[in-house]
Design goal:
The chain is an all-alpha fold. Helix 2 runs antiparallel to helix 3.
């Protein structure tokens, strides 16, 4: 079992498959999002492309929504942290 994007079962049906699905409980959904986040991070590490980064961000946004935030709030927090602590553009490694 794994969490998939909302339209995946329909796409599978269009391709002649018969997916077995269920709607996750709140607890299962949270755990599945965390597992999906790990999966997407592994794919970023392996494939190193922006499509996988987009998937990682999508899962992170879904998890943030689960915790009661919006994309806008997350972006605002990100901007505030960048303003206070900087981003990662200068490639600084702390030894």
């Amino acid at each position: 079992m794994k969490l998939v994007r909302d339209n995946v079962p329909g796409i599978m049906v269009e391709k002649g498959k018969e997916p077995k699905t269920h709607i996750a409980s709140e607890e299962e959904y949270e755990e599945s999002l965390i597992e999906k986040l790990k999966e997407e991070l592994t794919e970023v590490e392996e494939d190193r492309n922006v499509e996988e980064i987009a998937d990682l961000i999508e899962v992170a946004i879904a998890l943030a929504k689960k915790y009661g935030s919006t994309e806008e709030e997350i972006d605002q927090i990100r901007k505030e942290k960048n303003s206070k602590n900087g981003a990662f553009e200068k490639r600084v490694i702390l030894e």
